[in-house]
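> forwarded from #structure-qc
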């Protein structure tokens, strides 16, 4: 199933960069609109992604085949454009979920991304996972939900009413669009002839980021022209967000190029562990019981998913 194990450290680092970037991006909501806070990750991240891609090519020129624009198909660009659009919508929905009154529930529903990625990967890409991997996904998502809910309990009879809340809908939608982002990146990967997953991931990242700047930037230019100025005025924080976003996406896309999207996403759920560690490091708060339970569940889910992958490796 997985020809290279590069996806494991890639997913772990992707989770680290995502946790870091999300924490910083939240600060921008005080100064920017939802679309503006979303744009900075692409606008400031695109140059970083292109530099990473070209640097990697230069350092590995002897091991990589020459690649020109004529070697890329329309299906590749269609997959990259769909991935970029899904990520834009997912990011906007996630920011809206954070801004809602019941943001805890919204955050929890956004963490169903790994399950949705597994389902979409099966439906669109025909990616089949071991039962052990599915068990790992379920255990990991339950751990993430435990952490995201902060010890709160959601009763099943209240679930229909929760799904009518704006934060919950935005969170669930964000998870779905992020899952589709992974699937669309994988479709773009399948249209390339490059066997090096790092080179493939960085190339797709650069393509997606440029298309995202055009799409999101064009929308803002028409609907919120004043936001462009604010995006540049916040360049100190925005540039760091873009740097972290590019590094995180480079890791994610490399993982998608080397393994099924669901495996990458479930291992990448260590993001919540990093987020919790950042909070404890800076706030010096004691670890709560539900956090210990959630951390063990996430860790157990990752281990089961890895075991399932290993057992299915020829």
């Amino acid at each position: 199933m997985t020809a290279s194990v590069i996806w494991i450290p890639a997913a772990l680092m992707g989770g680290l960069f995502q946790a870091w970037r999300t924490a910083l991006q939240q600060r921008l909501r005080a100064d920017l609109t939802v679309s503006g806070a979303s744009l900075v990750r692409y606008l400031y991240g695109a140059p970083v992604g292109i530099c990473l891609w070209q640097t990697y090519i230069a350092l590995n020129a002897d091991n990589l085949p020459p690649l020109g624009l004529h070697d890329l198909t329309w299906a590749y660009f269609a997959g990259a454009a769909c991935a970029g659009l899904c990520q834009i919508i997912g990011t906007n929905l996630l920011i809206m979920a954070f801004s809602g009154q019941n943001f805890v529930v919204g955050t929890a529903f956004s963490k169903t991304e790994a399950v949705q990625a597994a389902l979409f990967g099966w439906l669109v890409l025909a990616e089949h996972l071991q039962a052990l991997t599915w068990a790992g996904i379920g255990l990991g998502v339950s751990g993430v939900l435990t952490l995201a809910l902060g010890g709160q309990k959601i009763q099943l009879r209240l679930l229909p009413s929760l799904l009518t809340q704006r934060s919950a809908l935005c969170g669930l939608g964000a998870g779905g669009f992020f899952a589709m982002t992974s699937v669309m990146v994988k479709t773009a990967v399948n249209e390339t002839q490059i066997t090096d997953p790092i080179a493939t991931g960085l190339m797709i990242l650069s393509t997606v980021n440029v298309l995202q700047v055009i799409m999101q930037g064009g929308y803002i230019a028409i609907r919120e022209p004043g936001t462009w100025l604010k995006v540049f005025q916040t360049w100190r924080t925005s540039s760091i967000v873009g740097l972290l976003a590019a590094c995180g996406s480079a890791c994610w896309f490399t993982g998608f190029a080397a393994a099924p999207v669901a495996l990458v996403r479930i291992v990448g759920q260590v993001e919540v562990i990093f987020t919790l560690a950042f909070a404890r490091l800076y706030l010096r708060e004691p670890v709560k019981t539900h956090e210990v339970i959630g951390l063990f569940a996430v860790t157990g889910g990752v281990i089961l998913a890895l075991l399932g992958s290993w057992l299915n490796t020829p």
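QC bot note: The mean pLDDT is 83. Residues 186 and 256 are 6 Å apart (CA to CA).
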